Amino acid sequence: MKKAGIFLTVALFSCIFLLAQEKRNVTIDLGLSQTYKGFFYLYNGVVEIGAAYNHQIIKSLYGGASFHLDYLSRSNSSARTIVYKPKVNLNYNFKINHWFCINPLVFAGYSFVSISNDEFDYAETQKGFNSGVELKFIWYSQASVDYYLFGRYDYIYLQEDVNFTLLEYYQKVHLTSFGIGIKIKPKKELRYQK
Amino acid sequence: MRIQSEYKKTGSKLLVLLLVLVLSACNKEQEPIILDADFMTVADVFQYCQGSCEYVNDWEKSAVLVKGYILNFNSDSIRSDYYSKSKFYLQDVRNGMFIEVRIDENKDPIFEKIWPADNKNLFFIKGTAEPVTATSNGDCTKGVVVSLIHPDNINFE
To answer: Across the interface, do B25 and A115 touch by the CB < 8 Å criterion?
Structure first.
């Protein structure tokens, strides 16, 4: 299933890339992630990394696909969890001035939560629908990339699996991440080009 | 202009669809769980067997089936500590949660049965969910310890 998810994401990216030749952008970001309540309460979030491909739907409204990965660990333990998050999104650019814009984004996807503990030869993967919101503060630069700060909230509702848990409470996974990223502009949209 | 309007409508519909997806992951009520129907994970027992001190919870004094790994059972000093205190901790290796298992009777036969195991053996325990109280900042909450009284009620693989 994990491979299928990755394949679908790659396919989605490829389709969007072929269909949207103009008014497109690619974002790559890196953040610190954190879990709240629920099954992963005792985990320390470590890092989230991901990329997105967006193209213009109309004016400042963009749509796209993304793939993010959260790596979570516990201190003094070999327990590790990796969350794979392929998603589709809609986002809107609110231009504040010549240099800054705010970009709110809503997304939905299907996530794969891979839990392992090498010390006990334990590994399993749970999966479920993922939705959430994100806010980017984008700084327009003169270079071929813009820079941004982001905050993201992911809510994952894991499918029922009695071997994993009998509790509704543990089916809900809450993740936040905050970090920095770059937005790669297409050559046609380069600002301040001579 | 007309095409732009169509795009706007499509965009709005997509936005609404995404918001519906976000909201569709709504809360469900937790149905009562029968604690001795099948072996439950430590994390489930830990979370389900909690509550306020103001009332008696449905899980209190119930028979419970729980499975997990004995915490740090490869350490000799911790093994002797468990023996001297007539208890051990059962952990969920997926997320680090653990619960206390109290040996209220038959201490020697129970420890004789579990000594050959190590921290990588998965234990299956049938016990009783006993409430314990804790007070923090004036708030009293109940947690659970599992009471074990017979060596036949503990097995490992």
So the answer is: no
